[in-house]
Amino acid sequence: MMSPLPELKQHLTKNAAFLVGGGCLLAWIAACTAVAAASLPLPNVGFAQDIGTMLDGGWRCYQGLRPHADYHTALGPMFGIIFGLPMLLGGPTYGSLQFLPPAVSALTAVWTWLVCRRSLPGVAAVGTAIAMGSIAGGIFHIGFQPGALSFATFYNRIGFGILGVVSLAALLPRIDEGHVHRRFLDATVVTGLLMLLFLKVSFFIVAGPLVIAASLMHQRNRGDWISIVSVAALGSLWFLFLIGFRLDLMFADLWMAAQARKSSASNYFFPLRNAIANHDFIGLLMIQSVAWLSLPAKPARRGRLILGQMLLLWGPAVLGWAITLIQSHGDGRGISTALAGLAISTAWLRQWTAAAHLDTLGTASASSADARGGKVDANLLSQVVLLMAAMLFILPHAQSYVHWLAVSDQAGPPQFKVAPLRQLYVGSFVNVLGPECVEKMNDAIELLQRHCKPSDSMQYIDENNPYSFACGLRTPRKSNMFWETGSSYSREHHPPPNDFDDTDFILVPKPELKYVPLQTLWKEIYSYYITTHFRACEETRYFILYKRRPS
């Protein structure tokens, strides 16, 4: 009778790796949460001009407004949910965003770990998960110094994190996987693509065809396809519900913004710098490529094997860099997909050295002895490279959290008197509103408080609007969330003038508000409507407030 001890030992070893990996991940999540609890809600030391975009999106969600169906936005349906859900849970104050970064990091990290824990060694799986969580929920722009704390373009970071997870789920090996995990990976691909579609459609346009084609490489049975169709149907219905089933209005808004960006395309070429600046990851990808050059295989099949692995390694990275070219900020470097490519390559190399076959790529098998003989070093090298890549995210992320604590300790008395903004701290590094950022924001708040009641509605003609949120004003129906030429509207493509019909007040910044001249295109488009329906009721150093004329 065969002893059950070897099988029991293998079972305990497998569970021990699972528990240790999960424990390390939970410890990292706990540490991030503890720092957030001991700190101010994320201080905006950099890019303070984006505060209003985040708060306005969340405030509209809090009021129950549906993106596209109830207002125009160039930022997609999920943008408001990211910042609105914390407000729904914790109230409409800036303090409700306190745990948003660690929550996003935690969800992304756990999702990544569940996707890759069977394909990667324990340490590599945990490192990849923490790194992907750091990318998606990071509190600074990747590529900037970790001290540039900000929520600015936070949704871009989430998008790149989701794209990294989807790439892993689509391209990791599935040999000998159980049907439950196989269907979980398929559900991840479908859910991730839907999230990208409704978060930022440009991500989906670039990533969708490649990821879907990669997913079709895997063999599936009838139950797998039923689960895929079910997840796609339920997910689509949920997202369509968020926009009132007005997909036509969603694409109309996105088309309007795309035409505006097209007319000012010269402003959007600097992300090339971020793609080219990926010399660190290019080096790591090159090192990983070398590990594949000495794979044991018959000469006739060796070329196909290496070509397949190069595609798995470089494909996701090139995908990320392609998306980088259509982004307009410094965190658009596509590095989450470079990390995913390293993880995918490591998993396939580990699969080869363990089982000596890659049937999903159509390659032939080698003997187990050949696979083990001299290939352990390549396997180990690939894991080391992957961990090195992970540390490129984890260490700056940890440094930014330390800086978060330091800034919170050094912050003085509240900068804003209104309750919704009382916990907001704006640092000295601001690149549009200038060093008088707090003074300018308080000027607008005091102006609105002198004239507006909470039941009044207000539109702010600028790229961001923290003031409706700060003063608790109603957001008008059919308003435009993002008034900026070159990003949301143009002379030929813009919201109609009657979108101001539900507006009681219009707040307009004066040229003195910024270092750059104020865009005046909106005056050319809407001047007749505004002059016939509104009058200027007060002017300050930085703003002019218009009030609707009595009917």
Q: Would you kindly provide a written description of the structure presented here, covering whatever features stand out?
A:
With 551 residues, the chain is mainly alpha-helical. It contains 19 helices and 4 strands. Strands 1-2-4-3 form a 4-stranded mixed sheet. Strand 3 (534-539) and strand 4 (543-548) form a beta hairpin. The N and C termini lie far apart (95 Å). Mean pLDDT is 84; it is low at 357-376.
Task: Provide the descriptors you would attach to this structure in a database record.
single chain; 551 residues; mainly alpha; four-stranded mixed sheet; 19 helices; 59% helix; globular
What structural category characterises the helix and strand content?
Answer: mainly alpha
Question: What's the story with the biggest beta sheet?
Answer: 4 strands, mixed
Round the Cα radius of gyration to an integer and report it: 26 Å
Measured distance between first and last alpha carbons: 95 Å
State the helicity in percent bands.
55-70%
- Topology as H/E string? HHHHHHHHHHHHHHHHHEHEHEE
Mean pLDDT across all amino acids: 84
